[in-house]
Amino acid sequence: MSQDTTLHETAPGSDPPPPYAIASVDNALRIVLMLDERGMRLTDIATHLDVARSTAHRLLAMLVYRGFAVRGEDHLYRAGRVRHRSAPTSSRRADDLTRLVRPALAELNESLDETVHLQVLQGRLVHFIESIEGTQPLRIGSRAGATLPAHRTSGGKAMLASLPRTELDAIWSAAEEHDGLPQDVADLLQPVRQLGYGVNLGTTERGIHAIGAAIMSADSRPVAAVSVSMPSIRLPRRRVRELAESVVRTARNAESALR
């Protein structure tokens, strides 16, 4: 395995390497850049860097500790909350998106007195970039900074359902164990596409229900999603349609704010 101090091609920019290159720092930065593009397994990262698995594991452990990487249930490493916080989202940085959409979120929060969230799609994952908590004693806490499988969240379903099948196939094919969009996920998205909003009735966490709607760009791309979550006792199935109207209206207001 190579242990030289050469800086490699994945470093951006055209400047020459520094005279005292540090291989471990270079490799850690290369991992960060690779994970910005797609999820990767430990063995693939080690092979790409030409280092031992143990070396790659130590580098990844530190990146996870500092928030630059996360390890999912599927054993893939992906960009962590620090990278999501600074990465552009549909030509808008996450902080700009939050600033522009927050008034619509706050209005929904005040009208329902429930916790509301703003999230963005990152491949097969959804990343929560903002939450406003309700004030009721029994309420859902902030999810800001959290990353979850998109097809298991209401807002994630709404964003996925707005994408063409070819793009969904490509997203799932990026993971080695999948050859296109799994049928069970396709079945989940079909009613979301018809209704115009996603519902999560305890899928992510037992006792928590949520409704989410995609915020679309002028060219019909999902920029983000807004969702409201609450204890299941306050969101029985019979209330879903009623509250969905408020969530969808908030998404439309957010779209107006972005244009």
Topology:
Blueprint lengths: L22 H15 L4 H8 L3 H13 L3 E3 L5 E3 L1 H6 L1 E2 L2 E2 H19 L2 E8 L2 E8 L14 E3 L4 H8 L3 H9 L9 H13 L2 E4 L6 E9 L5 E10 L8 H19 L1
Give the strand content.
15-25%
Separation, N- and C-terminal Cα atoms: 51 Å
Number of strands: 10
In CATH, the homologous superfamily of the largest domain goes by the name GAF domain
CATH architectural name of the largest domain:
2-Layer Sandwich
User: What is the CA-atom radius of gyration, in angstroms?
Assistant: 20 Å
Shape: globular
Low-confidence stretches: 1-14, 85-92
Binned, the helix content reads 40-55%
Class by alpha and beta content: alpha+beta
Number of domains as seen in the coordinates: 2
The main pleated sheet reads as: 6 strands, antiparallel
- CATH topology of the largest domain, by name, is Beta-Lactamase
Biggest β-sheet: strands ordered side by side in the sheet: 7-6-5-10-9-8
The ordered string of helix (H) and strand (E) elements is HHHEEHEEHEEEHHHEEEH
Domain IclR-ED: 81-259
GO molecular function, one term: DNA binding
Protein name: Helix-turn-helix domain-containing protein
Pfam family, one: IclR_C
